[in-house]
């Protein structure tokens, strides 16, 4: 999908993207993450640029994971006990989370680049509809 097809909040909402906040704009511009899931994959849109001091994101990239991803195997370098402590969850509670929430928690603890990898382009912008 071309980024012009996902460059506004309304386009993303029409395509079924959701985030950690009920408001998709807040999920993207303040938390830096949204996703769309189908039967086999989850495409994440994640922040790669902005004013990190103010927590205002304005540049984004994408990554796709299979829905059956085992985060403990894929991110075997992560200290899951630390992530769970950071989120206030037990190991069983963390394992019971849907995949997008596990990815969100990993990003919250380790940062976008450590979880999603380096972005080798300037990213794309998403405009808030007026």
List keywords for this structure.
alpha+beta, 7 helices, 4 strands, single chain, four-stranded antiparallel beta sheet, 130 residues
Can you give a write-up of this model?
The protein is α+β, with helices and mostly antiparallel strands and 130 residues long. The chain has one domain. It has helices at 9-15, 24-29, 71-74, 80-87, 91-96, 99-110, 112-116; strands spanning 18-19, 33-37, 41-51, 56-66. The two termini are 24 Å apart.
Query: Averaging pLDDT over every residue, what do you get?
Result: 89
State the strand order across the main sheet: 1-2-3-4
User: Main β-sheet, in a few words?
Assistant: 4 strands, antiparallel
Structure class: alpha+beta
Element string (H = helix, E = strand) = HEHEEEHHHHH
Overall body shape: globular
Low-confidence stretches: none
Relative strand content: 15-25%
């Amino acid at each position: 999908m071309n980024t012009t097809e996902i460059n506004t909040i309304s386009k993303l909402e029409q395509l079924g993207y959701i985030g950690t906040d009920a408001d998709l704009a807040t999920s993207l511009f303040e938390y830096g993450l949204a996703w769309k899931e189908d039967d086999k994959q989850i495409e994440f849109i994640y922040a790669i640029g902005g004013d990190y001091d103010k927590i205002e994101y304005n540049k984004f990239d994408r990554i796709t994971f299979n829905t059956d991803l085992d985060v403990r195997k894929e991110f075997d370098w992560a200290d899951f006990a630390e992530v769970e402590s950071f989120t206030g969850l037990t190991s069983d509670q963390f394992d019971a989370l849907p995949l997008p929430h596990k990815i969100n928690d990993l990003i919250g603890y380790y940062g976008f680049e450590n979880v999603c990898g380096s972005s080798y382009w300037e990213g794309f912008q998403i405009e808030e509809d007026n």
